[in-house]
Design goal:
Structural class of chain A: alpha+beta
Radius of gyration of chain A: 24 Å
Number of domains of chain A: 2
Strand order of the largest sheet of chain A: 6-7-8-3-9-10
CATH architecture of the largest domain in chain A: 3-Layer(aba) Sandwich
Oligomer: heterodimer
Strand order of the largest sheet of chain B: 1-2
CATH superfamily of the domain at 326-504 in chain B: MetI-like
Number of strands of chain B: 2
Largest interface: A-B, 34 and 22 residues
Shape of chain B: globular
């Protein structure tokens, strides 16, 4: 299978500071990838290395099977046929919207330029704003224009650097879904950089979780949530608590809340002490359940409540309960476990 | 070698040494003056110390105290009125109050002297109206320390006004409303909240005004006041002692540096005084009846005294004298000034572009530091710059001359001293700072991500310069040109000291005529300077009437 972008064992950094450590991933044409991680994890450096703003120290980068970065050479950004959307949009304030979008279309006949500008403005849903100046637009509108400008020259790969971080929280997911449908409609290969997992889930086909310059795990959002490869990913993606447990057999562990049986085999042998990840949706509130716990904290979230519960052993777990189960703080409620994906971590 | 970068072009390789060389060259005067602080003293210095130094210090201190009071009262008062009160003419006053900035202090000083001296229109009218003679009444003497304080306050208060007004407008309305909700009246919330919050900005404006006061030569020389700038002149030309003059300049420099430090420090503190990022349109306290009248008067008086009245007087004199003053010599003079100002402005802007782009592209600490050194020259008084230029230039001329004499038996004489090159060099030392500041603020608006966006859209660096930077920098570069142009037109002391023999500018001619008590005759040259000076003031007043932070 031919991939659109290949990052192979890339190590890179600034001056003397190494930021990336042996980063590898690839994307198929039309796939949307995401570099997800806390600030300082190196995710933006990956993007800048692909764009050609940072050279690589080791490894290489291929765009459309052509080597663009290696230890031997580094193609300048303007020769890479990439599109980039910046965190602050970086629209040119002295140009109208249409001229911003037209900016990367030099060398194309004027008529074609015009029709391409109209086309991408229609794709991002902003055809009425062609004559406006950037400062007359809202943040969300500027975002769309930045996207249109990057899409106009039909780049081999589109790079999005925290494109929604200047948006209101409510707008982010909606915009992420919109951008995704635009990219899918145009069959663009794209890489998104973000620290917000909801954005990543809403937009990406393939997510690379990064930490301290390394890719910790890559896969779909579903896999990252339910089958985290290590404690960092388990902690960074979603909510949950770690419970101590003892291994019974290859598929079973024993906890304070009883036996948990999962489909993933447990690495440690019977009798070993392990930690098991319990997500809020693994703990089901059931008035008839045998086990009980005390409500310590509760957060109303509309359709459901997120309860923090204290078990008799003193350990706290989280529980997602439907909104009509409204219990008071300090009330004792019945719970049972419903774990589909058993995730254990060895203790050493 | 594990990093791959494009090999630097010849331009990039020349850039760093170029910036360092320029920084070294233009800080030469400051260092040559500063070295005189530790220079062993001579007899002349001892004589100065025994006789006039105390007077210089005392007068300078009084002058600064007076100007502080004057500019604070006028500047802060008008700033408060025009930012939060609503009264007839407020919008007009908001920008018109900047107009006195177009008057160099020495020109307003001649004008007032002409208006108020014994033979002037005011006293003549008093005598005519009352039938008094000279013995029957006493009239305050303009040519005094008090007069100088008044003159400086009238033309320098806009510095305080400008920064204080910006600070008041930037203040979040929330803090004012909180103070009202806690029981403060409008006036006590001014004293207890608004004023303390604006204090760093006010102090910054005040230190600019005081720097101008210390730098002035024309006014104090005309009024015959013994302060540092006049002292440097007297010592240099009267006693013929360069070392003692340089020592005086060094002390003046100490004062100025103190002010620079205060100003920088206040500006930094001002950044922390932003209470919130949420802005709403400020409340407007609508003033009615006599209160509105008082506010109107309070704003009208500085405008009238600082601009309208002297401008009217100058125009009147110019009308009387232009027939014999505007001749071929005058045109030559005007042309000299324009040529000098234009070439200085072009050179300053070109150097500023070179330095500011170097700072942006090279991204190194040494470069940052050297650009900052060059950019602090604006605070240097013209007299200090002149002395600081003469000393190394004279040393250079003498060395070359003696070299030529010993080896070739010919005298090369003065090469740099007394040349237009020396004048231009002094202008660069003093005014490069202005153009650098303007260019840097323009560059700040072009975020690095814009360069990167253009490159990701397949533009080569040269094209980025043409298609992104040029259109965005056009306005800033023009502003920088204009400001340096006007500053050179107004400049007096450095030109006076360094100009080639028989080379005159409008400012020097106006000063000479006024010193010869030909006040009316000096009006055409003075009026020309003021007219040119209106340019940047109008620009400033335009930007002030546009928007404020957060809206």
């Amino acid at each position: 299978m031919t991939s659109q972008i290949d990052v192979e064992n890339v190590t890179a950094g600034y001056e003397d500071l190494q930021v990336l450590n042996d980063v590898s991933f690839s994307l198929q044409p039309g796939q949307i990838g995401c570099m997800l991680g806390p600030s300082g994890c190196g995710k933006t450096t990956v993007l800048r290395a692909i764009a050609g703003f940072e050279p690589v120290w080791r490894g290489r980068i291929l765009i459309d099977r052509v080597e663009v970065s290696s230890t031997r050479s580094c193609v300048v950004p303007e020769k890479r046929n990439i599109g980039m959307v910046f965190q602050d949009f970086a629209l040119f304030p002295h140009l109208r919207v249409e001229d911003n979008v037209r900016f990367g279309l030099k060398g194309m006949p004027r008529k074609l330029q015009h029709s391409r500008v109209q086309e991408v403005l229609a794709i991002v849903g902003m055809p009425a704003f062609a004559k406006a100046y950037p400062h007359q637009l809202s943040g969300g509108q500027q975002q769309r224009i930045a996207l249109a400008r990057a899409l106009a020259p039909q780049p081999d790969v589109l790079l999005l650097d925290e494109p929604f971080s200047n948006m209101d929280a409510e707008m982010r997911e909606q915009l992420a879904r919109e951008v995704r449908s635009i990219l899918k409609q145009e069959n663009n290969t794209a890489i998104l950089v973000t620290h917000d997992q909801n954005e990543a889930f809403a937009m990406a086909d393939r997510i690379c979780v990064m930490h301290e310059g390394r890719i910790q795990q890559q896969g779909s959002g579903y896999d990252l949530y339910h089958k985290p490869a290590n404690r960092f990913v388990a902690d960074f993606i979603g909510q949950g608590v770690i419970l101590p447990a003892t291994v019974e057999d290859r598929n079973t562990v024993r906890t304070d809340l009883g036996l948990i049986v999962g489909d993933n085999p447990v690495a440690d042998g019977p009798g070993a002490m392990v930690d098991v990840l319990i997500r809020p949706d693994d703990v089901v509130h059931d008035d008839d359940a045998g086990d009980t716990a005390i409500v310590v904290e509760k957060a109303f979230r509309g359709a459901d409540f997120l309860y923090h519960l204290r078990l008799d052993s003193g350990i706290e777990v989280m529980c997602l309960a439907p909104s009509h189960h409204n219990h008071k703080i300090n009330e004792r409620i019945g719970i049972r476990l419903n774990v589909d994906h058993l995730v254990t971590f060895s203790r050493n | 070698m594990n990093k791959v970068t494009a090999s630097p072009s010849w331009l990039q390789r020349l850039w760093k040494p170029g910036v360092l060389l320029l920084a070294g060259l233009f800080s030469l005067p400051v260092f040559s003056i500063a070295s005189f602080i530790v220079h062993p003293s001579n007899d002349v210095w001892q004589h100065l110390l025994d006789t006039v130094l105390g007077e210089y210090l005392f007068n300078s201190a009084l002058l600064m105290l007076g100007v502080t009071l004057g500019t604070l009262v006028i500047g802060v008062g008008c700033a408060w009125l025009t930012s939060v009160c609503l009264f007839p003419g407020k919008r007009l006053f908001a920008w018109a109050l900047l107009l006195p900035l177009a008057f160099p202090a020495y020109i307003i000083a001649y004008t007032y002297t002409g208006m108020f001296d014994f033979a002037g229109p005011v006293q003549s009218w008093i005598r005519a109206a009352t039938g008094w003679t000279a013995q029957d009444y006493s009239f305050p003497e303009i040519r005094s320390l008090g007069g100088a304080v008044t003159m400086f306050s009238l033309v320098l208060y806009p510095y305080v006004y400008l920064l204080a007004r910006a600070a008041f407008l930037e203040q979040s309305i929330c803090v004012l409303e909180v103070s009202r909700s806690l029981g403060c009246s409008v006036w006590s919330s001014f004293y207890r909240v608004a004023l303390p919050l604006a204090r760093p900005a006010i102090v910054a404006g005040l230190s600019l005004a005081l720097m101008e006061t210390l730098a002035d030569y024309g006014t104090v020389a005309y009024f015959g006041l013994g302060v540092f700038t006049t002292g440097i002149f007297r010592t240099w030309f009267g006693l013929g002692d360069g070392a003692a003059a340089a020592k005086l300049a060094a002390i003046l420099l100490l004062f100025v540096f103190t002010l620079i430090v205060i100003e920088r420090w206040s500006r930094r503190r001002a950044q922390y005084h932003h209470a919130t990022n949420r802005y709403r349109s400020l409340p407007q306290y609508r003033l009615r009846g006599y209160r509105a009248g008082l506010a109107c008067c309070a704003c009208l008086i500085p405008l009238l005294l600082g601009f309208l009245l002297p401008a009217f007087q100058l125009a009147l004199w110019a009308f009387e004298t232009y027939a014999y003053m505007v001749d071929a010599a005058f045109l030559r003079l005007t042309l000299n000034s324009l040529e000098l100002a234009l070439s200085a402005a072009l050179l300053a802007v070109m150097l500023a572009l070179f330095l500011a782009y170097g700072k942006r592209v090279l991204n190194s600490k040494t470069i940052d530091a050297s650009v900052r050194v060059v950019a602090s020259g604006y605070a240097l008084p013209g007299t200090v710059v002149a002395v600081g230029v003469i000393i190394p230039f004279a040393w250079f001329d003498n060395s070359i001359d003696s070299l030529m004499r010993t080896h070739y038996g010919v005298a090369s004489g003065l090469l740099l001293s007394g040349s237009l090159f020396a004048v231009m060099f002094a202008y660069m030392v003093r005014f490069l700072a202005v153009s650098i500041q303007a260019v840097e603020s323009g560059l700040l608006n072009i975020k690095p991500s814009m360069d990167e966006a253009a490159r990701s859209l397949s533009l080569a660096p040269g094209e980025i310069l043409m298609r992104v930077h040029l259109p965005l920098m056009k306005g800033t570069v023009l502003t920088a040109l204009l400001i340096v142009f006007v500053d050179v037109m107004k400049e007096l002391p450095a030109t006076l000291i360094l100009r080639p023999f028989n080379f005159n500018t409008l400012a020097v001619r106006a000063f000479e005529l006024a010193s010869d008590e030909r006040l009316a005759d000096s009006s055409t040259a003075a009026l020309m300077i003021v007219a040119v000076g209106l340019g940047p003031v109008i620009l400033l007043s335009h930007s002030i009437s546009v928007s404020r932070a957060g809206s």
